[in-house]
Amino acid sequence: MVGAGFAGVGCVKRLERRLTEREAQITLLSPFSYQLYLPLLPQVAAGVLTPQSVALSLRRSQKHRTRIVPGGAVGVDTAAKAVVLRTISGEFDVEPYDHLVLAPGSVTRTFDIPGLADHARGMKTLAEAVYVRDHVIAQLDLADASDDEAERAARLQFVVVGGGYAGTETAACLQLLTHNAVKRYPRLDPALIKWHLVDIAPKLMPELGDKLGAAAMKILTERGIQVSLGVSVASVDDEAVTLTDGRVLPCRTLIWTAGVAASPLIGTVGAETVRGRLVATPELSVPGLDGVWALGDAAAVPDLAKGEDGAICPPTAQHAMRQGRALADNLVATLRGESLRPYTHKDLGLVVDLGGMDGVSKPLGVELHGPAAQAVARGYHWAALRTNVAKTRVMTNWLLNAVAGDDYVRTGFLASKAGTLRDFEYTDAYLTPEQTRLHTGAFRGAVG
């Protein structure tokens, strides 16, 4: 199993329950020994939740029998039936397989924009969320200490790119953080704090529909967040962000959440892809590759519930969790010589937590906004947490934040580094097919 996200962990847990030790040995390749509850990352960045509360330990269960290897898969050789991984100590290792389940997830999608790689921060990993929080608070500290009005204004202007769920929630939650924090900085003028949400799309979160999209827009604008649609970033440097409409925004913070792309590991498999995602059958196997399965954000799984030719499941946690269980059942069926079942799931709806008492939700097609939507959003996330320990921690954090308010502690995490996308998502760590074969040569001979 490659990947410890919603799809990978869901699959492993079901395999552990359904297979005996005599039937299979399970190995999980993951650089971190936790499952990240990704939808709550904006609340970690805002300090509403602690990092530990959304990092669900893979080793907490006393019953698990999966061998966890601390490393990231960087190459796949299907001819040798082996995976090359780089361990957390930086060494290369090779793991052979009979069945390979690919659930490496996704990375932040970027474009060839001048300065983006060197100056953009992301919101895809736990470390990024912690870093962004430190960075935003640092801008308040530095602005408060500065006597240069231009520097103050630049440090207090923030740009978030991406009008999807991640970008909208990030802008909303961090705007609340700075709005509340500035009360602790008497030398700062609250009017100087400006948040911009930018997206090239013509609508905000179009999946929610026009009515809820307008409701979300109203909530954001009433808070003072400037939303610019049909606009993107032309260039960025360490002092300003230039937009495609010609505006130049002096700022020191660009948070990039403009969609996701399948993990670069998929490019090493050598199989057919759709928009970068590995093509999978409705049964979640990879056509033409013996013993290879794919699911989650990195797989293009047919969405049979839509009944449309060519429709594929969106990269959401909702689908990933259910695909994990479905794939486990099909893998068990394969080992036992039973028939496979196609994956199908009708979307249950969408929830967006905008912080405070604000939210927009569409559970089972019912449109909600305001406190009711916020209650649904948090209730959904709370119920989806895998362990009772995580549920207790998250609920405790929410209650403590509601009673005591925010803390504005800057931990100093990676204070001496730029903290850009490449520093956290390791997108340059993957091997070429030739490099992969250098590590798997012995296994290719064994398979042949």
Automatic annotation (TrEMBL):
It holds the Pfam family Pyr_redox_2. Residues 2-324 form the FAD/NAD(P)-binding domain. Signal peptide: none annotated. Keywords: FAD, Flavoprotein, NAD, Oxidoreductase. It comes from the Bacteria. The keyword Nucleotidyltransferase does not apply. InterPro entries: FAD/NAD-bd_sf, FAD/NAD-binding_dom, NDH-2. Belongs to the NADH dehydrogenase family. This is Oxidoreductase.
